Amino acid sequence: MASHRRPARVTVLTAAAATAAASLGAVPASADPGAGIEATRATVDRLFEEAERATEGYNKADEKADALRRTVSRARDGLARGQERINHMRGALGSVAGAQYRSGGIDPALALLLSSDPDNYLDRAAALDRLTARQGAALTELQREQRRLDQKRSEARTALVELDRSRAEVARHKRTVERKLAEARRVLASLTAEERADFDRASRSGGREGGPAEAVPPMADLGPASSRASAAVIAARSAIGKPYVWGATGPSAFDCSGLMVWSYRQAGISLPRTSSAQRYAGRQVPLSQAQPGDLVTYRGDASHVGIYAGGGQVIHAPYPGARVRYDPVNMMSHVTVTRV
To answer: What is the separation of C-alpha 214 from the centre of its chain, rounded to a whole number of angstroms?
Structure first.
């Protein structure tokens, strides 16, 4: 998300001072106007990077909330079916109990004496004994089913509580992202038109934003790659020029990991939603052996990701305000290459 050409030797203190000055509406005093631009760029880079980390948190929490919603839905369906089964079992037992109650007021010996057909009565008595045994087994099964239903209710309540927590976490990360991006916009708004143009040029990192797919060599010239990896690169190329929107997975807008999810989905492969999980979605290989379609993650926490397009270039969704584009594969630190 951050603009990827880092300013040389900008101190944290300078960046912090620029942020404080921007928040107060003041322009940092400097004998060298360029130093102010460097400090502003450092501040915006940091804010974009922090927003990207918050976006990772948002994506993780949102993915977890989706899974919990499915769990809760399945639990509710299971509870409904379990309750229906218990109701049926209770109804069957109630019918037998009612019949026994209605006929149970007569002593069996007296009933046999008064019976006009003793043989038939004995047959019915034996059947009643068997029915009573089955009734006992059914009652035991009903009790087991009730315990299972109670356990499902408990699990459903736990899932609902966890879902509420996850929704709160989604909202918290969303607020953080929006706050960081708003702060970055305020800092950029403090620049003059000429300073903003300089900033935009420096932020392109040599990339060809919105350029055609022919800006890098054709796939056939980029070395070996599986058919699915090639299909993922072709999909990513088709997204060049689409805007960065945090939390988006295409097809009209993307964040960095969302672009990877969408590109590989077009190739028939399901990837995890977050870039930190995508780092471990396959086998890691040295950067010198990178092939088109490999995932390339950045920073120690893998909070940014692109897809290797060959020719020393990645395709990625850089940061808010930028569009999907090519950039050098070594544009950031802690480069990890993952072959899916």
So the answer is: 32
pLDDT tens digit sequence for 58-102: 888 888 888 888 888 887 887 788 788 777 776 766 665 555 555
Q: Which two tokens stand for residue 268?
A: 């028939």
Burial environment of residue 140 by CB neighbours within 10 A (0 to 12, 13 to 18, 19 or more): exposed
Q: Are 142 and 89 in contact (CB under 8 A)?
A: yes
- What kind and span of H or E run contains 284? strand 283-285
**Token pair of 29 as six digits:** 């005093």
Distance, CA of 308 to CA of 315 (rounded, Å): 6
Phi, psi dihedral angles at 211 (to 5 degrees)? -70, 165
pTM: 0.59
Question: Which tokens belong to 195?
Answer: 């300073």
Beta bridge partners of 200: none
* pLDDT digits 0-9 by tens, 112-159: 444 455 556 555 555 555 556 666 676 677 777 778 878 878 888 888
Quote the distance between the C-alpha of residue 140 and its chain's center: 43
CB distance 259 to 317 below 8 Å: yes
